Amino acid sequence: MAEKVYTFEEVVKHNNNHDCWLIISGKVYDVTAFLADHPGGDETLLESTGKDATGDFEDVGHSKDAKDKMKGLLIGDFDESTLPPQ
To answer: Which residues, other chains included, contact 16 with Cβ-Cβ below 8 Å and sequence gap of 6+?
Structure first.
C-alpha cells in the first residue's frame, strides 16, 4: 500500500504542542508524542513547523538513534510541488 501524500496546506495546520507535524527530506512526521522528550525542547520542533524543516534537522547533526526513532513518527510523503516559494 502506498503511503499517504500530504500537501503543504495540510501539514501547516499541525503547528502546536498538541498537534505537531514536520516536513523533513520529503517525508511528513507527526512529532507530537515526542515533543516532551526532545533533547532540544519542544520549542525547537515547534519553530520548524510551517516550512520544510530539512535544513534545521540536518544542521543539528542528529545521531543514528535519532534517525531510527524518526521512523516510528513517519506518517507519509510530502508533495514538494505544494511548498510555497521561499
So the answer is: 46
Task: Calculate the alpha carbon distances from 20 to 5, 17, 36, 48, 52 in Å.
Answer: 17, 6, 12, 10, 13
> Is 85 within a domain?
no
| Digit-coded pLDDT (tens) for 21-32 | 999 999 999 999
**For residue range 26-76, what is the model confidence (pLDDT) as tens digits?**
999 999 999 988 988 889 999 999 999 999 888 888 888 888 989 999 999
Q: Which domain holds residue 11?
A: 5-80
What is the number of structural domains in the chain? Answer: 1
**Which secondary structure element, helix H or strand E, spans residue 42, and what is its range?**
helix 42-46
Beta-bridge partner residues of 24:
27
DSSP category for residue 68: H
CATH at 46: 3.10.120.10
- What's the one-letter identity of residue 69? K
